[in-house]
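go over this:
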Amino acid sequence: MPEIVAITRSVSPSIARCELTHLAREPIDLARAAAQHHQYEAALAALGCTVERLPDAPDLPDAVFVEDAAVVLDRIAVVTRPGAASRRPETASVAAALARHRALRTIEAPGTLDGGDVLRVGARLFVGRTGRSNADGIAQLARFAAEDDLEVVPVDVRGCLHLKSAVTEVAPGVVLVNPEWIEAAAFGHVSVMEIDPDEPYAANGLLVSGRLIYPASFPRTRVRLEAAGLSVEPVDVSELQKAEGAVTCCSLVFSV
């Protein structure tokens, strides 16, 4: 079996200064956020991942959200140019870690791309058109993805930060969507499940080794997932959610 690597980074003590787009700022309990992140890493390890933690970045408030700094494909990794300028210093350490596992490609100005806007389903990369990822960045990703025989499909997103705020793959060929934020028809013949409408942020789950790491704060949608036969591993990420975070954005998970 191939080894599964999960790249993570600890919660920055400056996380209270994180970028926010769709949420009102509220106090974040740093100690609790760090404990929740540790439990998240433990869940990754329990599912067979080798957790590789990046160096701490105390001056970078959003640095725990490592997914936005890169897109890891089969043979290459694409180092992004995040849409928020404050986040661009995060990419150098992510690139250094990924260079041990993949050949690197880099999104260049004027392109912008956040990894949270990229969802792979089979041989397709669905990429959100958002305030963080622009047309030039998506076009550059498409050129790089062709090296791995992957097709890029741009998708319109509304009302949320990233594509993966609105949709993630929760089982092979099955996506969980918030239909208020994205059109399910954009995913063609992929099987679609909808979140509970009272839990608008519930579409984000992280599929690892056949199990779904999933926020404990969305019990109604979890019932739907388990009723469909999915194996769910609940984790509490409530403090990280205050920073507009989710379970996918706290790691880069890939096989080596």
